[in-house]
Amino acid sequence: MTEVRDAVIVDVLRTTFGKRGGALANWHPVDLLAFALSHLVERSGVDPSSVDDVIGGCVTQVGEQSTNVTRNAWVAAGLPQHVPATTVDRQCGSSQQAMHFGAAGVVAGHYDLVVACGVEAMSRVPLAANARGGTGPFPPSFLEQIEGRLWAQFRVAQVLADKWGITREDMDAFSLRSHQRAAEAWESGHFAKEAIPVPKKDEEGNLTDELLESDEGIRRGGTMEIMAGLPPAQNWEPETAPDITAGNSSQMTDGAAAMLIAERSVAEKLGLPIRARFAHFAVAADDAAVVLSAPVPATEKLLERSGMTIEDFDAMECNEAFASIALMWQEAFKPDPGKYNPRGGAIAIGHPLGASGVRIAGTLLNQLESVGGRFGFQTMCEGGGQANATVIERLG
Fold this sequence. Notes:
Blueprint: E1 7-15, E2 18-19, H1 29-44, E3 53-57, H2 69-76, E4 85-88, H3 94-108, E5 113-121, H4 140-145, H5 153-163, H6 168-187, E6 195-196, E7 198-201, E8 207-212, H7 224-228, E9 253-263, H8 264-270, E10 276-285, H9 295-306, E11 315-318, H10 323-333, H11 346-349, H12 356-371, E12 375-382, E13 386-394
Parallel strand pairs: 1-6, 3-4, 3-5, 11-12
Antiparallel strand pairs: 1-9, 1-10, 2-9, 5-9, 7-8, 10-13, 12-13
């Protein structure tokens, strides 16, 4: 008889998130991920020498984030060097993909214990830094296939807003609610379970006594009038994205996140906590030029394969890369508004690209536990016109 293996989440956590140029700007990305990994090992109680692999997500793998940042972080944390590690890139969904690879490896019997994680230090390694020099990542052959539509993401966000009938007012209201929900999550103590305070560093990289105790990018006291007064995010080309502003877009952020995944019987044998299981996951792609649209087909693919419906989910998360993307998904699937991004999202919390997939999973699981829910769903748009979708089932 073939052994039935189940991939379960033992624990998941993240750092508090710093805004670009802010509280975490002096952290090297290797050390920031090492900080998250060390806390995951300590909090879960796992013997790190028993981990089979460490799979990390990172988008801009150049400079300080090059040369396998995940392996470097594991070693920098002082964790056992016989444990291997690798770094994957599925753009903004990189650490969500790391979760999928880890869970699939557990189910297939290749792993008993695996860490999925991610990091992005956007203060130190700017978005698209890998596009500088030479011809960049998009040669004429690629441009030919997308008919020359190499649009900035601001423009794509506007294209999708127009396609789905989403107005500037809709986006501003959604974004304001994101900040309000995230602020309340911190004020109520809800986020304390998933986010680890990070000590700040000085310009020489030395630790200080001051902590970043909550997400730095959350704005309190905003109004629709303030939101309406913000100019287009792309001031040099406002005609292509007149409704997309810094207020209804995600923030460039520094942060890291980590998750321990185990085979269920192994976790039980080792006495490790079992908080949830991976129930379903899928990945899909759409038009490579309209790079933010794929959460819709990814969700459709997952629902078709799993036989589930939106009504089955007690909490749902679509990454707030832009308010128009989250509202696109909302328009497509009509979730209960109270169950959709209920604690805010990347517009308020921040979007450290490579860490966001695991961050969202931690927020999703934390929400399920707080409301006694069973199934949670997450998806996010990814560069290149791709998206991952994941369903977890709370067990704890």
